[in-house]
Amino acid sequence: MLSFENNALVVYVTVGDPDISITRDVIIAAIDAGANIIELGVPFSDPLADGPVIQRASERALKGGTTLRQVIDLGSEIRRQRPNAGLIIFSYLNPILSMGIDRFCTALSAAGIDGALVTDLTLEEADDYLWKMRQHGLATIFLAAPTSTDTRLKAIAKNSSGFIYAVSRLGVTGARKEMSGDAKDLVRRLRKHTKLPIAVGFGISTADQFAGASKFADGVVVGSAIVETIERNPGREPLAVANFIRGLKRQPSAIQSSAKA
Fold first, then answer.
1. Which residue in 91, 102, 175, 231 has a CA-CA distance of 20 to 30 Å to 50?
2. From the candidates 17, 50, 114, 228, which is the catalytic residue?
3. Quick one: pLDDT at residue 181?
């Protein structure tokens, strides 16, 4: 269920890092701590759009043998345990083509997963994918970049469902100390073409950034900071992620007051 009421928090995890069982526990903990939508990241051997944190996570997950089928199965399990959470597959195109688009769509629908975001699928190559996803009632989420022309943004809006992922800055994924001013302008430009919710991501890792992005976007995506929290807390991954999310969703002023107390 892709709900964007009251500034949704969209959380990305690389499934299988460090293993499937821990990923399941991390996702449950994240949802219970306040995550509204989970991006189930499919590990990939050549993640060109990802920074070093997610690249390392993909390497660990692949070394453990994580497959797209396992990611979907985990999504089905999460759906049973947390029926109101939003769940989307976040993948590069190749694993989906290897499974077959028909089988992929059928599997997502059967698992109760809401849709997918395919990072390297261009609109020009998406006709078959879009048709089959729509046949199964699945959301098709596309990335919009600050460099996209208005014509391109209009096309992205036309072909998207569920929500649109607005990339806050150029470059690869990874936490940043400051959020680019391009994000607010990109959301403003997208609003001219769509009434869909718009989530801002890439580089958001602090309560200040979360609060700032929530002022102009319908949702905020946090990925690398979550994956790095998992990496840095072996043996206590679910608790560490839950604590991070609770801190992220608190008002910055409250965090500062707590620090001074």
1. 102
2. 50
3. 66
pLDDT tens-place string over residues 28-57: 999 999 999 999 999 998 867 677 899 999
Domains of the chain, CATH where assigned: 8-260 (3.20.20.70)
Q: For this structure, is 127 an active site residue? A: no
The list of the chain residues with pLDDT below 50 reads 171-179, 251-261
Which pLDDT value is given to residue 19? Answer: 97
Pick the catalytic residue: 25, 32, 39, 124? 39
Per residue, the 3-state secondary structure of the chain, as one string, reads: CCCCCCCEEEEEEECCCCCHHHHHHHHHHHHHHCCCEEEEECCCCCCCCCCHHHHHHHHHHHHCCCCHHHHHHHHHHHHHHCCCCEEEEEECHHHHHHHCHHHHHHHHHHHCCCEEEECCCCHHHCHHHHHHHHHCCCEEECEECCCCCHHHHHHHHHHCCCCEEEECCCCCCCCCCCCCCHHHHHHHHHHCCCCCCEEEECCCCCHHHHHHHHCCCCEEEECHHHHHHHHHCCCCHHHHHHHHHHHHHCCHHHHHHHHHC
